[in-house]
Design brief:
Gyrase A, domain 2; 595 residues; Rossmann fold; 21 helices; 14 strands
Length: 595
């Protein structure tokens, strides 16, 4: 309709003002909820043609559309905005077409699809995945699905930070205090076992630093000279030098972690097409740094560290290689970006990384630009806010985190408790119930995180997310399951409707309201893809579920005496279920058939 309206308004401008208005001057948007209308034309850009007031211009165009375009049934003008009402007949006709569409998201496909890399998760191999990784992974995986249905070729990537001082801390602690402990001997999941020694390192390190401070050393000096930290630095140098004993230990402990990560990703329902490892890409990054140094793009400090000056780009001076020759995060990110472009020739590369790294990605783009990689314009930092607990921030070094595995298990258990308390699923088998509890728990977790605008910080509260009422995943899942139960009951009653012959003239105001909302689905998906915002789809699904539940409460469906009205309501129910299922799929959320 927006496209048709744009054409009709251009015709109106031509007839009324003998002028041709370009497409960019015809600004149409959905009418805000607090005003009467379906679509709103912003009149101000057209005043150059009308040479009149916004109110008078809106009146003239509105009147012309009423007289020349039957789909427009009414209008009103509020200052510089022309609110247009679309006729019930048009909505009904549009609904009939939607019923016949096999692929509801076909209209979302862009004219010029691109190759897009989406990087998400980005864990360190010194600790298990936690709640922060969950938000990151869910956002990245949802972006992949949204961009894919819009026709883009999307490659899901992960960069594993498997080298550096933090990795050596876990390795050194295990070497000193582990007594040969393994996941098999301890019964501890591999990534959890390695994380245990990272926390132990920090504990022992703090104690050593405190002893030095107690002996009269300044705090900063004490932290830099604690024996355990010195050993970790020496281990990093040996690792970068390829020391066989250190490399073997590194391979062994990393294998434990990777096995643990795979298990968690599977539980969470996310995966990757290509995994990169910092231990590989930092080497390419280091070569790029040396090459740029020879070309005079970088400079070397007196201590032999290598830097880049980005002051003319409005940034600062940035370290690219330490004085001892070891690489920093920027080094590996340079190498990873170049390697990815060589492999995939991407148009866009989206980094799903928290907002504390905003400056880092500004620098990455600027450095690559300075190195004459023009494709760096396609790099985009998907900067999202932090996720916290009701009691405050998480601290990995102190072991004060919400472990991903524990949270996934807790969500399923909470779903079970709430479901049993509400008396749901009593008649189902044990294994069937456990599978539904899993879907509800994960759905609650994913929806609670994805419904929040990615740019905002959020507080995750597990008990709030499981609520079967309100803006939650279980509420939407329950709405879907409710509709599926309507059709199971219809089968039992031998009630059959033919969606090809729905008498849509029987639609009342409530049906029209739902039909209007159903039509918004593809526009919402398109907007979510353009703005990188899964929350738009999440909140649309909630709005649709809420409206349908009110409809279900106010009107009978299978008990309706008029067959044509009953068939229309069944058609609306069917399309609602399809759209809820599609929308939640884009969020990575499974929909139980029964609840």
């Amino acid at each position: 309709m927006e496209r048709v309206l744009k054409t009709k308004i251009k015709e109106a401008v031509r007839i009324l003002y003998d002028s041709d208005a370009s497409d960019d001057l015809i600004q149409i948007q959905e009418t805000r909820k607090d005003f009467v209308g379906d679509f709103t034309l912003v009149v101000f850009p057209l005043l150059r043609f009308s040479k009149n007031t916004p109110e008078k211009t809106g009146e003239m165009i509105g009147k012309h559309l009423i007289e020349s375009f039957p789909a427009v049934s009414g209008y009103n003008v509020i200052k510089g905005f022309l609110n247009l009402e679309i006729s019930d007949a048009w909505w009904i006709s549009n609904f009939s077409k939607m019923l016949q569409e096999e692929n509801l998201m076909a209209k979302c496909v862009v004219d010029q699809p691109e190759t897009i890399l989406v990087e998400y998760s980005s864990p360190n191999t010194n600790k298990p995945l936690h709640l922060g990784h969950i938000r990151n992974s869910l956002l990245g995986f949802s972006l992949y699905r949204i961009l894919t249905v819009c026709g883009h070729k999307v490659i899901k990537t992960n960069i594993v930070n498997d080298r550096g001082i933090h990795i050596c801390k876990s390795m050194l602690a295990w070497q000193k205090f582990g007594n040969g402990e393994t996941p098999e001997s301890s019964g501890i999941k591999g990534d959890h076992l390695v994380g245990k020694y990272y926390v132990l390192f920090e504990k022992q390190y703090r104690e050593e630093a405190e002893d030095l401070i107690a002996g009269g050393m300044e705090p900063v000096e004490a932290k830099n000279n604690a024996p355990l930290l010195k050993e970790a630095r020496e281990m990093l140098l040996k690792w970068e030098a390829g020391d066989p004993e250190i490399i073997n230990l590194w391979n062994q402990m990393n294998s434990w972690v990777y096995s643990g990560f795979d298990e968690t990703y599977k539980k969470l329902g996310v995966d990757f097409d290509k995994i990169y490892y910092e231990s590989d890409t930092y080497k390419l990054g280091r070569d790029l740094v040396f090459k740029a140094l020879k070309e005079g793009l970088l400079y070397k400090n007196g201590d032999s560290s290598i830097w880049i000056d980005l002051k003319t780009e409005g940034l600062d001076q940035k370290l690219l290689l330490r004085s001892d020759g070891t690489a920093v995060y920027m080094t590996q990110d340079l190498g990873t970006a170049v390697l990815r472009h060589e492999e995939f020739g991407f148009d866009r590369c989206i980094y799903v990384v928290g907002n504390e790294q905003n400056y880092h990605f500004q620098v990455l783009k600027a450095v690559l630009k300075k190195m004459d990689y023009s494709w760096s314009d396609g790099l985009f930092h998907f900067s999202y806010g932090m996720v916290e607990l009701p009691e405050g921030k998480m601290k990995s070094r102190e072991g004060v985190v919400v472990d991903a595995d524990d949270l996934i298990a807790e969500m399923a258990e909470t779903a079970k408790d709430v479901s049993l308390e509400l008396g749901k699923l009593a008649e189902y088998r044990g294994d069937e119930k456990e599978e539904i509890f899993r879907k509800i728990g994960l759905g609650a977790l994913k929806y609670f995180i994805l419904k929040v605008d990615p740019k905002k910080n959020m507080t995750f509260n597990p008990s709030e997310s499981i609520d079967f009422n309100g803006n939650t995943g279980p509420f939407i899942q329950y709405t879907y399951a409710r509709i599926r139960s309507v059709f199971r009951k219809a089968d039992e009653m031998n009630v059959i409707f033919n969606r090809n012959f729905i008498k849509t003239e029987k639609a009342g105001s409530k049906e029209i309201q739902l039909i209007r909302l159903l039509r918004r689905f593809t526009a919402t998906v398109t907007e979510a893809a353009e703005s990188y915002s899964p929350s738009l789809i999440a909140n649309y699904c909630y709005e649709l579920a809420k409206e349908y539940n009110q409809f279900y409460h106010d009107f009978t469906i299978l008990g309706e005496k008029d067959p044509s009205v009953r068939d229309l309501r069944m058609a609306i129910s069917e399309l609602t279920a399809r759209i809820l299922g599609s929308g939640m799929f884009l969020l990575g959320i499974e929909m139980p058939e029964r609840m």
